[in-house]
Amino acid sequence: MQRLKFKSMLSPTLQWSFSSPLPPLNFKPCSSLQYSPWSGLQAWRESPLNENRIWGPNGPQSLVLQSPSSVVDNCDSSIGSASSLAELGALVLSTSDPLTKSKLSHLAYSRWRRENLPLGLVSDPPSRPARPLKPELVSPKEIPAPKNSGLPLNAFMLHNLAHVELNAIDLAWDTVVRFSPFSEILGEGFFADFAHVADDESRHFGWCSQRLSELGFKYGDMPAHNLLWRECEKSSDNVAARLAVIPLVQEARGLDAGPRLVQKLVGFGDLRTSNIVAKIADEEVAHVAVGAFWFVSVCQKMGRAPCSTFKDLLNEYNVELKGPFNYSARDEAGLPRDWYGTSSSKMQDKSYKQDKNEKLSLVYDRLASIISMESENSSLKRPPR
Prior knowledge:
Oligomer: single chain
Distance between the termini: 100 Å
């Protein structure tokens, strides 16, 4: 039964029966570029629980005010009665208060690791996560411009990031809960990785919320969009599409946007917030790497080439890739450039042209400097008339 169900979770063009023999993995890559896992993936998996839940004067730090059991009682006593990772994830998804959701996410992951709970399964996951009354969810076009938001620029950008991180908690737990009936095929490592991602995202939301409070604001002080969850709903019946759409598109956009956001915050003069954003962007590499690893794994099980499968899924689910891309961060995460480029040759040609133009610009600047110096020297040596 489980094998038959999983078959329906692949798109019609990619269906393949897990009960049939594996076809030969004769991949035809889009180019000569090959998938290479992030070098830090195993260390991330084996890392101890991260208790750095607050942002101190010098960066992330741990602040233990209560024992774990009393925190559980204060957040939601029902978490103590959950008997599996999937049940814990469902509780997080059913929690509407953002700060409580963030705390429960960490407690759920911590309890699963410390008590070695089974994965379990939830046959009827929540259709969508519980949400607070604020922020009001509107279309992306209705999000106010910074000058009309009622928030200064740094708080405006931080609120947007907090919204992304809160959604990311739910996106990761939904992946754990929704696909829990298929653990025999996907393997428990799949669920361990995405529960770990959810824990990271809960820490990121906590930092953003803390900093917003320091600036005199809170999450919910301006409208937000529901685009991220709509993208998640598209892939609710397809594990390959979920991996393509969420970590490899949505989270990868965070790798692209992170450095630009940091620069804007530095320009605004808010170094504390810029440091928080830089740390979050750095940790997002692991989440994209997890998505790439498991996407390749699923493709191998289907006997499909990851590159062409990725592009087919984005086309089928009408997901748009938007640049500019942070190639160095994407490369580090193990996301091959030919997956998200029109073609490897065009990508390499564009990269070559960019490098060439940058080098030419430096040459021109140096020439201009030399010419200016020569002109000055010439004028100094010229005898007076």
